[in-house]
Amino acid sequence: MKLQQLLSYTRRAVDDYHMIQEGDKIAVGISGGKDSLAMLYALHGLRRFYPASFELEAITVDLGFPNFDLSGIRTLCEKMEIHYTIVPTDIYDIIFRIRKESNPCALCAKMRKGALNQAIKETGCNKAAYAHHKNDVVETMLLALIFEGRFHTFAPVTYLDRMDLTVIRPLMYIDEADVIGFQHKYSLPVCKSPCPADGHTKREYAKDLLRSLNQEHPGTSERMFRAILDGIYKPYESLDYIQALSAVNSCTK
Fold first, then answer.
1. Residue 236's pLDDT band (boundaries 50, 70, 90)?
2. Residue 74 in contact with residue 193, Cβ under 8 Å?
3. How many CA atoms lie within 13 A of 211 on its CB side?
4. pTM of the predicted model, to two decimals?
5. Torsion angle of the four alpha carbons 210, 36, 55, 244, in this order, in degrees rounded to the nearest 10
6. Where are the domains of the chain?
7. Nearest-angstrom CA–CA distance, 209 and 143
8. I need a surface site. Which of 115, 181, 184, 233 has the fewest CB within 10 A?
9. Tens of pLDDT along 71-121?
10. Looking at domain 3-252, what is its CATH homologous superfamily?
């Protein structure tokens, strides 16, 4: 995927769900993976021509894994002239060495998100951009169906009232395969996750299940995404939602 295509899909999502307003300061959560780095490229490119002016702040929560080198990401942010904050934590030690969690993902996600949200507020951002792509949307729906018994996935825009923070997901129209193509084409400085649980989660199970379904019935993933657009996301297109979101955003600035 070329940068122009990435920008086109991102612009469409931002416009469809009114993700960005004039004067926003958006924190881009950088995990070190391909998705968050592609999103950084997308929002950096979008900022140059989008009718509403906005600022970007890149933030990485360092979980404390040994040999996790973020120098390539720091260099990229300097090239883009985006301020980059690395938040040091002891999450790795707490989860794997002290508590020795057998199922670490939920606690890790909670602690990581808490550290990220705190850093976002400290940098003066009113919005946070999460790098969930189209496959993430469908996989989350599968997980909710299988393990919770409900048709649900995360929203394009979510207001966190306790944090007074709005979360946006600008990559929601982009396939993971296209992100991988973009990663290789533009040599993104990806930092592979050293987490011992990486690849052994319920999320990985949903990913494998979706891959199998697509092999047996080509187009399954796309049809599921369309069902989500019609059944879950459609209410977000209403005028009442747009007005409510605008009111919320005006209170956060």
1. low
2. no
3. 8
4. 0.87
5. 20
6. 3-252
7. 10
8. 184
9. 999 999 999 999 999 999 999 889 888 888 777 888 888 899 889 999 999
10. HUPs (3.40.50.620)
